[in-house]
Amino acid sequence: MIITADAEDIKQRLNELNIEHRDLDDVISQLSRSTAQDQLQLQRLKKRKLHLKDLISTLERQLTPDISA
Questions:
Q1: What is the DSSP code (8-state) at residue 65?
Q2: Sorting pLDDT into bands at 50, 70 and 90, what band is 68?
Q3: pLDDT for 40-60, tens place per residue?
Q4: From CA 1, how far away is CA 31, in angstroms rounded?
Q5: Residues near 32 by Cβ (< 8 Å), separated by ≥ 6?
Q6: Torsion sign (Cα): 34, 35, 36, 42
Q7: Could you give the residue ranges of the DSSP H alpha helices within 1-69?
Q8: In terms of CB atoms within 10 Å, which end of the chain has fewer, N or C?
């Protein structure tokens, strides 16, 4: 079971990561529409976005209590 302070820290971090993930999504979308696309930059941004998604999933699992069988 997670202590309340830890849960609040995790929720705060989740919020920050979700904001960064959305911001990256916007940037990637704008760059994709640009005529002068920088494929290397797009690739790096997409990789960062995927990494953020993995971090978000990990933190969300920490907030979900284990279910006894």
A1: P
A2: low
A3: 999 999 999 999 999 999 999
A4: 43
A5: 42
A6: positive
A7: 4-33, 39-63
A8: C
Which tokens go with 7?
């849960």
How many Å apart are CA 10 and CA 4, to the nearest integer? 10
* Token digits of residue 40: 């290397």
Angle between helices 4-33 and 39-63 (to 10 degrees): 160
37 three-state secondary structure:
coil
Where in the chain are the domains?
A: 4-62
Among positive and negative, which fits the CA dihedral 38, 41, 44, 45? negative
- Report the distance separating Cα 15 and Cα 17, nearest Å: 5
pLDDT in tens, 2-42: 567 788 999 999 999 999 999 999 999 999 888 877 899 99
